[in-house]
Amino acid sequence: MAESSDKFLTRPPLVDSFGRVHSNLRISVTDRCNIRCFYCMPESNVQFLPRTELLTFEELTRFVSVVASCGVNKLRLTGGEPLVRSNLSELVGQLAKIDGIQDIALTTNGLLLADYAQPLFDAGLHRLNVSLDGLSEATFQKISRRSGLDKVLAGIDKAIEMGFQKIRLNAVSIAGITEPEIIPLARFARAKKLELRFIEFMPLDADKSWASDQVLSGEKIKAMIESEIGSLVPAERLDKSQPSMDFDFADGNGRIGFINPISQPFCSDCNRIRITAEGKFRNCLFSTSEWDLRKILREGGTDADIEAAVRDSIGQKKATHGIDSDAFVRPEKAMFQIGG
């Protein structure tokens, strides 16, 4: 798994019209979730996909094998909440055996993590991102519209115990709600020796109530942390395609990252592609177009047909998501339907 993906690249790389090479695939395994964060999905009456419409593990493994031959080497499993998908560790095990795949990560809300950390680790999962928007139960319930912060914290502790290569905490930042959580989260991450990333609130909420004045910018958060805890210095940027601008505490204890898609778009270095739980391929989180891979997979399509659809999509990828443009059109799908 540590070998260079160049050894396994048997097809030309996936390059768009702007020269961006795509090697990072986000795989949504389900649209279902056990909480109802308002920045992601409706509070009630959610219409989930019939289970028969979800890609099977075998279909996902075949798809990943095809794109891996074109240079995809990093995978991230998302949802919905991926841990509500039964036997997810089996999929991790299948993906870990694909030539060229060097890194498999998972984004989870953490509610079920204490139960599944062990089988996921044993199956070959390398890294974890745990969503943690605040450390108070009141904020947790205000955002998630459910209870369960104690389970998330227990899941984080279990993951630390298991020894995952890297565990990150993801905190969505929302003006008027999460400001009191910033400093406690930063102190918590330092104490647990975990990396913390703050993510600006994006227009992908199911209620379509997002407004620009709800965006709590990374710059403002950084200033708050430096004022209360200590100076932050830019971290070495080993991968220019990473969405986060990372900073180390000057005292050497901890790292904070800022993902600022609204205030500081990072589209020029984007190397990410996505497949939804029902097999729709997307070249951008904010794309308004999708390519139906499930149809190809289930109706006798060849690997060449799969590759052609992927290349067609990537060839039509836009230069930017355009959120800061008057011409921006938000996707019809919410985050839980696309995959985080």
Topology:
Layout: E1 24-28, H1 57-68, E2 74-78, H2 88-96, E3 103-108, H3 113-123, E4 127-131, H4 137-144, H5 149-162, E5 166-173, H6 182-192, E6 195-200, H7 218-228, E7 232-234, E8 245-249, E9 255-259, E10 272-275, E11 280-282, E12 291-292, H8 293-298, H9 303-315, H10 335-338
Parallel strand pairs: 1-2, 1-10, 2-3, 3-4, 4-5, 5-6, 6-9
Antiparallel strand pairs: 7-8, 8-9, 10-11, 11-12
Helix pairs in contact: 1-2, 1-9, 2-3, 3-5
How would a crystallographer describe the biggest sheet?
A: 12 strands, mixed
Shape descriptor: globular
State the strand order across the main sheet: 7-8-9-6-5-4-3-2-1-10-11-12
Uncertain residue segments = none
The ordered string of helix (H) and strand (E) elements is EHEHEHEHHEHEHEEEEEEHHH
CATH architect. name: Alpha-Beta Barrel
CATH superfamily: Aldolase class I
Number of helices: 10
How helix-rich are the residues, as a percent range? 25-40%
CATH topology, what is it called?
A: TIM Barrel
Averaging pLDDT over every residue, what do you get? 93
- The CATH class label is Alpha Beta
How far from one another are the termini? 24 Å
